[in-house]
Amino acid sequence: MTTPTPPIKLAVFSTKSYDKTYLDTVLSTTHPSLFEPSYHPFALSLETVPLAANHEAISAFVNDTLDAPVLRALHSTGARAILLRCAGYNNIDLTVAEELGLFVANVPSYSPEAVAEFTIALLQTLNRNTHRAYNRVREGNFNLEGLMGTTLFGKTVGVIGVGRIGLAFAKIVRGFGCRLLAADPKPSSSEAEFEEQYGGKLVPLETLLSESDIVSLHCPLTKGTRHIIDTQNLALMKKGALLVNTSRGPLINTKSAIEALKSGQLGGLALDVYEEEAAYFYNDHSHEIIHDDTLMRLMTFPNVLVCGHQAFFTREALGEICETVARNLEDWVKGRHCVNSLVREGHLVVRGEGEPVRI
Ligand code: NAI
Hints:
35% of the residues lie in helices and 16% in strands. It is α/β, with parallel strands linked by helices.
């Protein structure tokens, strides 16, 4: 790998005002005049690749496209490093990135508590109807009809994926006095540790689904987890159970979830992420017709709550994200990892198969 010479041009895609504020502050403090960032509000796609011409470093977010054609196009215009500003890396073709010798780094860990706490906010909003109460009271309607929820104490909560965020969520749920079940093919703690530290039990997915009153998704999106919640698994759930997804939209087959909501099999659905979110999330479409009928159908249910992928969105998390991006940039400049710094936290190694493997 050739060492980049300063000032290094960095193209930042899907930029919002807060990205610029935090990244500018971190870069000017940690690496004054090393980088020359250019900020683009547009998402990265084949159409917007020309904005990154002659930029060696590219920063992308969750809904940017980093598939094979985009990576090849970026590489041909000089890109050598891809800095994700998120934990999930499902939107990048890592096999092609490795083949091109691109340095790729994600932000493996930033305030897992931020996401876990938001998961609780969604769950309790859905469960206790605080969103509806807020609207009613503002109109002078103090009627409680239709606002009844359930007490979480003593309920069984199933956590699918007990990595950093799943464990942070488990800790909070334990504090509520819930019974905790978890399903994870490669849990970060042993069964005994999990039981001792979190008061929970590791069980097969089928057991978790059939015994939980609340199911919360915290696994990454991979080939193996796409539609992990489908018609078959929805049918295994307890009738009327609540489902929360703050991980990635395609973990749930949305059309199956709609059917389960219509039949009452699913008692409520809280989403921070949505299968086809890239077309709408992070932008204001309030003045347009939304053409996604599935999303619009979801919004008609009184027991569905949709947020626009904001679980990560705290001051602390944004600061940590930008600091990690700066550290990743430094790694790249110093040639510390020339292929893939997803390994940096000793957490993941990706070598060709396209599936992340824990090391
Ligand atoms: P992590 O890598 O620490 O943990 C993920 C866990 O899921 C691991 O223990 C893994 O073994 C497990 N897992 C993998 N396949 C599974 C399967 N088939 N069934 C059950 N468990 C499985 O990741 P972390 O940091 O906890 O993040 C989880 C996900 O949360 C990320 O991949 C990302 O998609 C999402 N996320 C969402 C955010 C938001 O703003 N809504 C912000 C940050 C992350």
